[in-house]
Design goal:
The chain has helices spanning 37-66, 68-81, 84-97, 101-117, 122-142, 166-169, 190-198, 209-212, 234-254, 282-287, 299-303, 311-324, 360-366, 368-381, 397-416, 434-437, 440-443, 454-462, 480-495, 513-518, 531-539, 543-554, 559-570; strands at 3-6, 8-11, 14-21, 157-161, 177-182, 202-204, 218-222, 227-230, 262-263, 269-276, 292-297, 329-333, 387-391, 426-431, 449-452, 499-502, 523-526. By secondary structure, it is an alpha/beta fold.
């Protein structure tokens, strides 16, 4: 008899396949003491080298399939693997207490995980799961257990698991892995973001899929609605096959929107752009009809290096991207490091909550030499196309004015040096802190544009860590308080004739797009693979109707109430 489950639709698409139940080998840690510490540490170090080789390979695979932003996860995993404090503690336990290296590693790893999990901070919570991922791989090598290679799957399957780690997701081949379903996770988890990049369906947060499923069982999965059917009937398979054919037909039809500009049904023009992390990501922007880059995350230049990139190194990277985009606008965010993004060559201060601490523009205004180097490289690259420079994590008008003053100083220095620069550089800011959003009209006197970073704006506004499963229900992009804040930002900018973009997850959400049209957002920046669908949605809606929808939404009381209003227009 068929079993029906419903989770969080996290990546669109319909999968009809067999279940591949991801059952990891049980890791049983021996409790025996050792007599030869030298031999034991040799085993440990050899296992570390094997694990490091895997992580380097995974970083390469991820770079090719998913781009630099996703690949950076494995750079972080290598740092965890080679963390001197963790290695010292394992070595001390082996040498001094004659504990076998597997037991020592388990003990040290659990201590670090428990410490990070207990902290109410997104960076540490994510690091706890990353430590577990790295430790489990290392333990398998120590204990001579099989390290599962999902890249070898050679038949059409849907992977079922408690959760998928970044290292597992990076191995998936979309030719054979037609989707995955997990008990844990949600739309903003690593697994969901990677699924959307790979363009395979994903349903997360199912809670009981592992318990209810069996290996090789038939499965139907809808990554948009979150519906799953195990052991479907023939009529259900036939019905879902038709739905899948319709979905694939719609995907094919979307290609006709590639060369079109973005206009609503009643003729209002919008711009659809993409978020990128490296030069390699530009191909996908152009292939999907992107009208520009709405966010170039420059931190990956720093994270992929073993030193602060020089002015020449940065200039070369910016120039290459700007030239490749032709005459299309490229909005470049200055260094947004800190929080969950660390550097191997820079020691951040110890903070209880680094996400709300020393990061982004706060670091740049303190370490002005680093900031000036980046600004010089950006200003020099401006002559090769259209660019905008934006500052992240701005909380006060004084911060923005201080950052812009440094920009003006470097610009004037370059002019005196006889360096050619564009006279059309726009200088703007990320809107991601509620304190800035509520006085957006004050900032608009000084900034050329705003770009709304909804991921942070939502979690800061709701005082809820979006990575925490315990308060994930508070990650509510359609909550009227969020919509009213976005409305304040857009109205504040337009009052002074400035434009507003959005580069957060919300910009590419099919249910958010009608609301953002009604709120008169100017630029939408999203994953490149979402652009054509967004363009089609916009072409079928009237802005005048969406303004009426927005008025109802702004006066609503709950996230679900707003979502139901939007769903009615699609129905």
């Amino acid at each position: 008899m068929a079993i029906k489950l419903e989770g969080i639709g996290s990546s669109e698409g319909i999968a009809i396949a067999k279940v591949f139940k991801l059952v990891e080998p049980e890791i049983i840690i021996p409790d025996k003491k050792i007599t030869d510490a030298v031999k034991e540490l040799k085993l440990f170090n050899l296992s570390v080298q094997k694990t490091k080789k895997d992580l380097i390979n995974l970083e390469k695979i991820s770079m090719e399939k998913l781009g630099s932003e996703k690949a950076a996860i494995f750079g972080a995993h290598q740092q965890i693997l080679e963390d001197p404090e963790m290695q010292k503690q394992v070595t001390d336990l082996v040498n001094n207490e004659k504990i076998n290296c597997a037991k020592a590693l388990e003990q040290v790893s659990k201590q670090f995980q428990a410490m990070f999990t207990s902290m109410n901070d997104p960076y540490f919570k994510e690091r706890a799961s990353d430590i577990k991922d790295v430790t489990n791989r290392l333990l398998k090598y120590i204990l001579n257990l099989e390290v599962l290679d999902l890249a070898t799957i050679s038949e059409q399957v849907v992977i079922i698991a408690d959760d998928l780690t970044p290292s597992q997701t990076a191995q998936l081949n979309p030719e054979f892995v037609k989707g995955f379903a997990c008990d844990m996770g949600g739309r903003t988890s690593h697994a969901a973001i990677m699924a959307r990049t790979l363009e395979i369906p994903a349903v997360l947060g199912l809670k009981t899929i592992v318990k209810n499923s069996k290996h090789n069982q038939s499965i139907l999965m809808n990554g948009k609605t979150g519906e799953i059917i195990l052991d479907p009937s023939k009529s259900e398979i036939d019905s879902w096959t038709k739905q899948k054919e319709l979905f694939l037909k719609e995907q094919k039809e979307l290609l006709s929107f590639k060369e079109k500009s973005t206009h609503s049904k009643d003729g209002v023009k919008f711009e659809l752009e993409a978020n990128i992390g490296s030069l390699k990501d530009v191909d996908a922007v152009l292939e999907n009809g992107g009208e520009g880059v709405g966010l170039f995350r420059t931190e990956f230049l720093y994270m992929d290096s073993d030193h602060f990139p020089t002015e020449e190194e940065q200039f070369g990277a910016y120039k290459a991207i700007i030239e490749k985009m032709g005459n299309k606008k490229v909005i470049i965010r200055t260094l947004d490091i800190g929080g969950d993004k660390k550097l191997s060559y820079f020691q951040f201060p110890e903070e209880l909550n680094p996400f709300l601490g020393y990061r982004a523009i706060r670091l740049c205004l303190d370490k002005k030499d680093i900031f000036r180097t980046q600004l010089r490289a950006l200003i020099r690259a401006s002559v090769f196309g259209k660019i905008g420079i934006m500052f992240p994590m701005i909380a006060t008008v004084d911060e923005f004015k201080s950052a812009k003053k440094i920009y003006e100083e470097e610009k004037n220095k370059l002019i005196k040096e006889g360096v050619k620069i564009s006279d059309e550089i726009e200088v703007g800011m990320m809107m991601e802190i509620p304190a800035a959003a509520v006085i957006a009209d004050k900032f608009a006197k000084y900034a050329d544009f705003f770009s709304i970073g909804t991921n942070d704006l939502i979690q800061y506004n709701m005082a809820a860590d979006r990575m925490s499963q315990f308060v994930s229900y508070l990650y509510q992009p359609f909550n009227p308080s969020i919509l009213n804040m976005i409305n304040l930002i857009i109205k504040g900018a337009h009052k002074h004739g400035k434009w507003v973009g959005m580069c957060g997850e919300m910009a590419g959400d099919q249910y958010a797009i009608p609301l953002l049209m009604g709120l008169e957002l100017d630029y939408f920046s999203m994953s490149a693979t979402s652009i054509l669908k967004a363009r089609k949605i916009i072409s079928e809606l009237n802005v005048s109707d969406m303004k009426e929808l927005v008025q109802k939404a702004l006066n609503s009381e709950t996230n679900d109430e707003v979502l139901n209003l939007v769903k009615k227009i699609y129905n």
